[in-house]
Amino acid sequence: MSREWVAVPDTDTVGGTLDELRRRGELPPQTDHVYVVDARQVLRGLVPLPALLVRDPSTAIASLVLDEAVTFTPTSDVNDAVNAFERYDLISAPVLDGRGKLVGRLTVDTVMDVLRDESNLQALRTAGLRGDEDLFAAPLTSARNRWPWLGVNLATAFVATRVIGHFEGEIQQMASLATLMPIVASIGGNTGNQTMALMIRALATDQVQAANARQLLRKELWVSILNGSVWGLLVGACAVVLYARLGLGLVMSGAVVLNLVVAATAGVLIPIGLHSAGRDPAQGGSVLLTFVTDAMGFFLFLALARVFLL
Question: Counting Cβ atoms within 10 Å, is residue 159 exposed (0-12), middle (13-18) or buried (19+)?
């Protein structure tokens, strides 16, 4: 919150306000409005600077105030302020106390600093790191900050390996399964990460509500089916060329399509679930998504191979 602003009494005129601006010589940064206050410093309204230039100097300044103005209090939530600046394309906004007195001004450069900090924090959390970790912190401190989600990742990785272990017999009979199944898991993980990144951004900007969650899920499912059909056929064709088995190519294509559907579903539901539970969707969401796409990718590919190839 800045302590610099331009305020004029509600008894002033346009000419008097322009004289006051000239006397200042220099306006505070990000000044786009003049604040009109009464004798008790209670805000009466805002007047855009361009309006002062086109009005008769004798016009009462109080007659030019905007009907509605976005204001904040010193205790307003910073995320509400960020959303308001984005929604209404604000450059600055007044900060009022409980009695409506002008106590400060919030500017767009401050809001951009908050957005930059939030973006950096989200990038750290997406990787399972803590936002308060300093780049040059002690090694032991940095290691401890990364333990929780690394532990979750280790546990989920063991579960994924047990899925593979369940199909050891099939892999022994057809070694090509071992070389191809990481492709199914990888392409599913990439698709899920794309979907989840879009969902996290939408949740951060309040674009996702209970009313449109199903619509978003339906849309992402259709996208996954279309992408799965295209890339599944391509991957399947490569498998046929490499191993000269049409059935293997068809199984590969089917597994890719199904895993992309699973990845899209997880990419939508995991962020919404974490958000509904009061947890940051960016923190650990990638770990859960990787577990789902890996485990299901291995299972779908090997299960289809058991049914149609062995």
Answer: exposed
DSSP state of 230: H
| 36-76 residue pLDDT tens | 999 998 999 999 999 999 999 999 999 999 878 899 999 99
State how far the Cα of 310 lies from the Cα of 306, in Å rounded to an integer: 5
Whose tokens are 């993980």? That residue is 189
**253, 178 in Cβ contact below 8 A?**
no
What values do phi and psi take at 42, rounded to 5? -80, 130
CA-only gyration radius of the chain, Å = 29
Residue pair 61/10 in contact by the 8 Å Cβ criterion: yes
Residue 160 backbone zone (phi > 0: left; psi -120 to 50: alpha; other: beta):
alpha
Entry field: residues in the chain = 310
**What stretches of the chain adopt beta strand conformation (E)?**
7-9, 33-37, 43-48, 92-96, 102-107
Helix (H/G/I), strand (E/B), else coil: 193: helix
Which amino acid would we find at residue 170? E
pTM of the model: 0.62
> What's the first-to-final CA gap in the chain, in angstroms?
69
What pLDDT digit, counting tens, does each position of 239-258 carry?
A: 999 999 999 999 999 999 99
**Residue 108 Cα to chain centre, angstroms:** 20
